[in-house]
Design a protein that fits this description.
With about 525 residues, this protein is α/β, with parallel strands linked by helices. It folds into 2 domains: about 90 residues, no CATH class; about 300 residues, D-Lysine 5,6-aminomutase alpha subunit (TIM Barrel, Alpha-Beta Barrel), CATH 3.20.20.440. The protein has 20 helices and 11 strands. The strands form 2 sheets. A 9-stranded parallel sheet has the order 7-6-5-4-3-2-10-9-8. A two-stranded antiparallel ribbon has the order 1-11. α15 links the parallel β9 and β10. α2 packs parallel to α9, α6 crosses α20 and α14 crosses α18. The longest helix has about 35 residues. The two termini are about 40 Å apart.
Length: about 525
C-alpha cells in the first residue's frame, strides 16, 4: 500500500533492529532447552494418540515416565525410536505397550546409534510429508474456490459441543463468514495435556482436540463446496500444550492458529521460559503447514489504557514479527494483532484509532493483520455497541486490514446467538461494500492529528524496545512493560516442564523443519 503517515523509515529500522537483537538472544536461550510439551509433540507427530486405562493421553504417559527417570534431556525421540527398532512395534503399538506396562523403554537393549538416528529422521519425514500434502490441498482449494476479499470476515463459535459448533459454523459460512474460529473451553490453556476425542461439554467454548479439528474441517469443506468459497478454520495453540495443538492443527489442515510469544505469559500466568521454548517449535510447525498465526497484542488494551499503552502494542508486534521470522514464518503468515479499544467518550478517539491501524498496516505491509473489535468499553447497550462495531469496521476497511474479527452488539451480555452473528456479518458486509476503496482515496495531512499520533507512537515503541534490549527481555516481563502485568522467569505455571538439553539431544522434526524452512541449524 502507499504510505500515508510520513513515518520516519530510520525509526522503523531502529525498532526492527532492536526487536531482532531481542529475538536473537531469546533464540539462543530457547535452543538450549526443551519442554514436556515439545517432546509430547514429537510423539504425536510419530503417530501416537489415544489415552490409557485412566484416561491419561499416551504422549503424557511416555514423556512423564522418561522425565521421571531423568532421561528427557536427550529428547524423547531417541529412547522411543530405539524402542520401535528393538521391539518391531509401530509408534502407536509401542505407546500402548508402555502404557499398560508390558514394555519399559529403559529396559530395552540399545540399538546402533546411527540406526536410531536414521530411522527417526525417516519416520519424521513421513509425518512432515503428510503436513505438506495438507498444505498443497489447501492451496488447491483456494485456487479453485477462492475466498472473500480482505478484510476476511472472522467470527467465533463457542457452544461447548462440537456438533452444535458445526451447525453454527455452517450457518455463519452461508451468511458470509470467511474464517470460523472455534473458541476453546475456558481454562484449557492451563491443562498440561490435550483432551482426547470428540467433546460435547465445555464452558465458554469447545475443547481443542484432534478429533474436534477433524470434524470441523470436514464440515467446513462441505459447506465451502456448497457455497463455492474456501472457509478457513481457526483454533488456539497457545497455553501449556502450544506445540502439540500446532501439530494437531497441521495434521488436520487448520488454516489459522492463535499463537503468541507473550499471551500465555501475561494473561494465563504460564511460565515465561516454558512459553518461549514452546512457541518456537510451535511456530516452526505452523510455518511449514502454511498456517497464518494470530498474535494477541489486542489483549494488552483490555488491561491497559488504549491511548497510553498504544506503543506497547507496536513494540510487541515488532518482537512477534522477529520471533516468527526465526521460526521460518513468512510475513504473509503473520496475523499480528491489534484492537479498536478507544474509550467512546474520548474526543477524536476514532482518529487515534485510525492512526494506530494505519501505522500497523504501513509498518507491516505484507502481514495479514488481525484487527480485534471493541470489547473493553461494551456496556450492554446493544445500540451503542452496534455503532462502536460499525466504526471498527469502517476503520478496518479504511486502513486495509487483513483479518477482521467481527464484534457482536451483545458483547458483555452472553455468548453470541445465531441472530447476533448474522447482524454483525450483515453490517460488516454493508460497510465493506460501500467503502471498499475508501482507503485508496484518503490521504492524511503530514502535520495532522493522525500522522502526528502515529509518529509519536512509533518513537515511544522504539524507545521501549531499546530499553527492553538494555534490561533483558525476561527482566522486562518481570518489570511489567506489557499490559501492566508482571511475570518473573521462575514464576507461573509449567516451569517444571522445562528441561535443559543435553549434548546428545535429538529431535528429528526440529532438524528436518529447520532444513525444509531454510533456517540455521542449531549446534
Amino acid at each position: 500500500m502507499t504510505p500515508k503517515l510520513h513515518l520516519d523509515e530510520a525509526w522503523i529500522a531502529r525498532g526492527r533492529a532492536a526487536a531482532g537483537r531481542i529475538a536473537d538472544w531469546m533464540e539462543a536461550f530457547t535452543s538450549a532447552r526443551t519442554t514436556v510439551a515439545v517432546e509430547r509433540t514429537v510423539l504425536r507427530l510419530f503417530g501416537v494418540d489415544g489415552v490409557n486405562a485412566e484416561g491419561v493421553p499416551l504422549p503424557n504417559v511416555i514423556v512423564d515416565a522418561v522425565q521421571a527417570a531423568g532421561g528427557l534431556a536427550g529428547g524423547i525421540a531417541r529412547p522411543f525410536v530405539n524402542g520401535m527398532l528393538a521391539t518391531g512395534l509401530s509408534a502407536q503399538a509401542l505407546a500402548e505397550a508402555v502404557a499398560d506396562g508390558s514394555v519399559r523403554l529403559d529396559e530395552l537393549p540399545d540399538m546402533d546409534e546411527s540406526a536410531v538416528r536414521e530411522a527417526g529422521l525417516r519416520w519424521a519425514e513421513g509425518a512432515l510429508d503428510r503436513i505438506a500434502a495438507n498444505r498443497r490441498r489447501r492451496e488447491a482449494l483456494l485456487e479453485r474456490l477462492d475466498e472473500g476479499p480482505a478484510p476476511l470476515l472472522y467470527v467465533i463459535v463457542a457452544t461447548g459441543n462440537i456438533y452444535e459448533d458445526v451447525v453454527q459454523a455452517r450457518a455463519a459460512a452461508r451468511q458470509g463468514a470467511d474464517i470460523i474460529a472455534v473458541i476453546r473451553s475456558t481454562g484449557q490453556s492451563l491443562l498440561d495435556y490435550v483432551p482426547y476425542g470428540a467433546t460435547t461439554e465445555g464452558y465458554g467454548g469447545t475443547y481443542a482436540t484432534q478429533e474436534n479439528f477433524r470434524i470441523m474441517r470436514e464440515a467446513l469443506d462441505e459447506v465451502g463446496e456448497e457455497i463455492g468459497r474456501y472457509i478457513r478454520l481457526c483454533n488456539y495453540c497457545s497455553g501449556l500444550c502450544m506445540p502439540e495443538i500446532a501439530a494437531m492443527g497441521a495434521l488436520e489442515r487448520l488454516d489459522v492458529m492463535l499463537n503468541d510469544a507473550l499471551y500465555g505469559i501475561l494473561f494465563r500466568d504460564i511460565n515465561p521460559q516454558r512459553t518461549l521454548v514452546d512457541q518456537m517449535f510451535s511456530r516452526m510447525i505452523n510455518a511449514y503447514a502454511g498456517v497464518i498465526i494470530n498474535t494477541g497484542e489486542d489483549n494488552y488494551l483490555t488491561t491497559a489504557d488504549a491511548v497510553q499503552a498504544a506503543h506497547t502494542v507496536l513494540a510487541s508486534q515488532f518482537i512477534n514479527e522477529q520471533f516468527a521470522l526465526r521460526a521460518g514464518l513468512r510475513e504473509e503468515q503473520m496475523g499480528l494483532g491489534h484492537a479498536f479499544e478507544m474509550d467512546p467518550a474520548l474526543e477524536d478517539g476514532f482518529l487515534l484509532e485510525v492512526a494506530q491501524a494505519q501505522m500497523a498496516r504501513e509498518i507491516f505491509p505484507r502481514a495479514p493483520l488481525k484487527y480485534m473489535p471493541p470489547t473493553k468499553h461494551m456496556t450492554g447497550n446493544i445500540f451503542r455497541g452496534h455503532v462502536q462495531d460499525a466504526l471498527f469496521n469502517l476503520a478496518g476497511i479504511l486502513t486495509q486490514q487483513g483479518i477482521q474479527l467481527l464484534g457482536m452488539m451483545t458483547e458483555q451480555i452472553h455468548t453470541p446467538l445465531l441472530s447476533d452473528r448474522h447482524l454483525s456479518l450483515e453490517a460488516a458486509k454493508y460497510i465493506f461494500r460501500n467503502a471498499r476503496h475508501l482507503g485508496d482515496e484518503v490521504v492524511f495531512r503530514p502535520d495532522g492529528r493522525i500522522a502526528r499520533r502515529a509518529r509519536e507512537v512509533l518513537r515511544e515503541a522504539v524507545d521501549l524496545l531499546e530499553r527492553i534490549e538494555r534490561m533483558g527481555f525476561l527482566e522486562a516481563l518481570a518489570d511489567g512493560v506489557f499490559a501492566d502485568v508482571r511475570r518473573t522467569p521462575a514464576g507461573g505455571r509449567g516451569l517444571s516442564g522445562v528441561v535443559m538439553r543435553g549434548p546428545t539431544y535429538f529431535n528429528p522434526f526440529e532438524e528436518l523443519l529447520r532444513a525444509r524452512l531454510g533456517l540455521e541449524v542449531q549446534v
